[in-house]
Amino acid sequence: MADTDVIIRRGHLLSSLIDKVHCGSILASIVHCYYELYGKDYAADLVTKFSKLFTLFFYNIIEKIYLDVLLLPPGV
C-alpha cells in the first residue's frame, strides 16, 4: 500500500491522509467518486461540507497564530 492510498470505511479515515489531490478536480478524487456513486446533489453537498470544514480549520489555525503573536512575554 502506498502513501497515496486512502482507506475510508464506514465514514472513518483508516489509512493515509487526505490532501488537495484527493479532494481536487482530478478523475480519481473523492468528489468525482462521490458524484459517480451518489449523483450531483450529494456531491455538491460534499463540496459544501468540505468548504465548511476547511474554513473552520483555517480559522482555528489563524486564531492560534494571532494569539501567539499578540501575547507578549512578561516584562516587555
UniProtKB/TrEMBL annotation:
GO CC list: DNA-directed RNA polymerase complex
Transmembrane segment boundaries: none
Keyword line: DNA-directed RNA polymerase, Nucleotidyltransferase, Transcription, Transferase
Protein name (record): DNA-directed RNA polymerase
MF-aspect GO terms: DNA binding; DNA-directed RNA polymerase activity
Keyword Repeat: no
GO biological process: DNA-templated transcription
Family per similarity comment: Belongs to the RNA polymerase beta' chain family.
Domain RNA polymerase Rpb1: 2-59
Catalytic EC class: transferase
Domain of life: Eukaryota
Organism: Rotaria sordida
Catalytic activity, EC: 2.7.7.6
Coiled coil: none
Any Pfam family: RNA_pol_Rpb1_3
